[in-house]
Amino acid sequence: MTLKKRADIRVWEVEGEAIMYDPASGMGHVLNPTALRIWSMCDGRPEREIQAALGRDFPESKETIHRDVTGAIKQFKELGLLECMA
Amino acid sequence: MHGLTAVRQETAASAAVFGLPGFHFRLVSEDWELEDRFRLVFGELEGEAGLASNPHVYEVVCPSDATRTVLFDGEPIVEVVPLSSAFAFLEWHVTRHCLQHTDDGIALHAGAVERDGRAILLSGSSGSGKTTIALSLLSRGAHYLSDEAVFVSSDGRVRGLPRALALKAGRSHWIDLPFGGHRDATTHCEADGTTYVAPRALGFEVVGRRVEPGAVVLLQRTETEAGLSRLTAGEAFLPLLQQVFSNEPHEDILATVSSLLRRAPVYRLSGSDIVETTSLVEGLFETPTL
């Protein structure tokens, strides 16, 4: 399954973190630097590619990366922020 | 003095005019004391009057010595007794109207003082020390924007809601003020447990223009030693959002708060000693990030 950001979500980056606004729900969210990095890679690629990309950048933190990516994407999905395409 | 009072009573209801960008109010009152209090509290705004073409009109009528009825644009909004309650209600209504209907960005619950063109915002809920620390910084040479609210424009710059300092009874406003304890109707008035102090009458300069935010300080009254810690934008965002006068995180609000966060670092201030906490905040004027 590939993951893609919904086009109408607004994101403002501030010093490596971000504030996100979902106009459909009227909710705002805060992304820490890790979540922002994962969000920025939700451009249509599958989850395993996001994990692999982060693993290349941070080879010493592979286990943490797996947990962070899985957790962040789960939250993005639960909040309805992604378009999931088979 | 009696002669003056008699002359005033013979005339028709008087009118005080006050305003700030986007707002223009007239107070038409049969009650001279009430009008004088209004001039004191919102007098700082008089220089801006006339910016809006159609003023909102408050009318205060006195059905009896003990009763004041207040109308807003012709509609009765409250019947109150005694005078102090009428004044407190009017002060609250004007302030709330400005905060809810501003087209000058978003309204943030924060006091603010300025030095060298940069403002330090003091944000926190009622009782957190906005007025006390603002007053303390004013006595150290800072200039006054507001002790209650600032308007943050979409580019992140700020303008104060310039009304008189409101010192609540029982709070720690024990700063030595330059008037040396002197009080009269031109510098002070009291209503419902609040003493209103006109900053200009005390020699403090009032800044009405929009200024660059130098730092935002989130006030957290604690019994611990005074301390100042820098927050990340993510840590600061939600506490700041809670101080915006709006119930909904609209896109414009989030964008404006983001602009503010880009322009100014955010700190959390803990402690309760006014000298120590003021010194920490004052030090922010000297930091290179300002």
Tell me what you see in this structure.
The complex is a heterodimer of chains A (86) and B (290). Chain A has helices spanning 33-40, 47-57, 62-78; strands at 2-5, 10-14, 17-22, 27-31, 43-46, 82-85. Chain A is of the alpha+beta class. Chain A has a single domain (2-85), classed as Outer Surface Protein A, domain 3. The longest helix of chain A has 17 residues, at 62-78. Chain B folds into two domains: 2-101, no CATH class; 107-286, Phosphoenolpyruvate Carboxykinase, domain 3, CATH 3.90.228.20. Chain B is 28% helix and 33% strand. Chain B is built from seven helices and 16 strands. In chain B, the strands form three sheets. In chain B, strands 6, 7, 8, 9, 10, 14, 15 and 16 form an eight-stranded mixed beta sheet that branches. In chain B, strands 1-2-3-4-5 form a five-stranded mixed beta sheet, with helices on one face. A three-stranded antiparallel beta sheet of chain B has the order 11-13-12. In chain B, helix 4 (130-138) packs across helix 7 and helix 5 crosses helix 6 (251-263). The chains are: A alpha+beta (86), B alpha+beta (290). The A-B interface holds A 10, 12, 14-19, 21, 23, 26-28, 30-32 and B 232-234, 237-238, 241, 248-251, 254-255, 257-258, 261-262.
